[in-house]
Amino acid sequence: GQSLEQPSEVTAVEGAIVQINCTYQTSGFYGLSWYQQHDGGAPTFLSYNALDGLEETGRFSSFLSRSDSYGYLLLQELQMKDSASYFCAAPSSSGAGSYQLTFGKGTKLSVIP
Amino acid sequence: DAGVIQSPRHEVTEMGQEVTLRCKPISGHDYLFWYRQTMMRGLELLIYFNNNVPIDDSGMPEDRFSAKMPNASFSNLKIQPSEPRDSAVYFCASSPGQQETQYFGPGTRLLVL
Questions:
Q1: What number of CA atoms fall less than 13 Å from residue A17's CA on the CB side?
Q2: What's the mean pLDDT when you consider all of chain B?
Q3: Measured between alpha carbons, how far is B51 from B100 in angstroms, rounded to an integer?
Q4: Which of A14, A112, B51, B58 sits in a 20 to 30 Å window from B26, CA-based?
Q5: Which residues in chain A show pLDDT less than 50?
Q6: What is the pLDDT of residue A94?
Q7: What is the pLDDT of residue B17?
Q8: Are strands A107-112 and A53-57 parallel, antiparallel or unpaired?
Q9: Which of A93, A101, A105 to mutate to test the interface with B (most CBs of B within 10 A)?
Q10: Cβ of A100 under 8 Å from any chain B Cβ?
Q11: Is B39 exposed, middle or buried (0-12, 13-18, 19+ CB in 10 A)?
């Protein structure tokens, strides 16, 4: 199974940089995904790290270290619209052909002026 | 593409009633997932299908829950009889491949009184 831990809440100032960490314990690991969910909305895909290192997509970057069972999402030049919950998620296979995407509990980011 | 479509968007029902949630995945996506989201438990995978065949239903809470996918463009999740603890947001998601990005529908907000 999978277990992913991330902080429950983070507050940051508009224009600043914020890092949301995710640590995981897995039995079979394929990579780490990040999803964004605004209040009342659906989760939407942000990024996926299959390999160690940094993946950059505009203002958002995601990092993975398999040796440390750790990853993070980095948001730069924060905007008010970035206020949302951010979930790390890891796919795993039971070995019987079953595949699951397990989500962390989410980090609620509040961007303040 | 219209994305994943779910109906109804909101459902209020009384304990003991049958509830049916519906999902239309993105055309061409071979995988369909049903999730439940609550404050206490976060986002949980209930069941997923590959090419209309249920692959893993280990997340289905109990026998009151059932899901079917009669064809590639439709799936439903039924709760019979419903209980107050079933109140949650139910998301349907689809993906083109087993380990590819999942696209979520807008969700059904279920309240069982």
A1: 8
A2: 94
A3: 15
A4: B58
A5: none
A6: 62
A7: 97
A8: unpaired
A9: A101
A10: yes
A11: exposed
The minimal CB distance from A91 to the residues B42, B56, B99 is found for B99
Contacts of A94 in chain B (CB under 8 A): 56
Query: SS3 sequence, chain A?
Result: CEEEECCCEEEEECCCCEEEEEEEEECCCCCEEEEEECCCCCCEEEEEECCCEEEEECCEEEEEECCCCEEEEEECCCCHHHCEEEEEEEEEECCCCCEEEEECCCEEEEEEC
Q: Which residue reads 């296979």 in tokens?
A: A93
Contacts of A48 in chain B (CB under 8 A): 101
Which residues of chain B does A42 touch, with a Cβ-Cβ cutoff of 8 Å? 91, 104-107
Residue B37 tokens, joined:
């989201």
| Strand duo A60-65 + A53-57: pairing | antiparallel
